[in-house]
Fold this sequence. Notes:
The chain is of the alpha+beta class. The chain has three helices and three strands; from the N terminus they run βααββα. It has helices at residues 6-13, 17-25, 47-62, and strands at residues 3-4, 32-36, 41-46. A three-stranded antiparallel β-sheet has the order 1-3-2. A hairpin with a 4-residue loop joins strand 2 and strand 3. Helix 1 (6-13) crosses helix 2 (17-25). 13% of the residues are buried.
Amino acid sequence: MKRMTVKEAAELLNVNPQYIRVGLQQKKFKWGYAKKGTSKWHYYIDQESLEKEIKETQEKRHD
Length: 63
């Protein structure tokens, strides 16, 4: 699994990084997750899964 940062994912999706953080904390995205540590959250974003979802979404819009 090649990981992306929250900042990279936000730039790719053209959204605010906080949107990504909250979505991961609330388990709204299939392509990543968040784990709460002792003092902060840790974010895991699978680059391949995110890029695949973007591609599928774009294809649906063109159908």
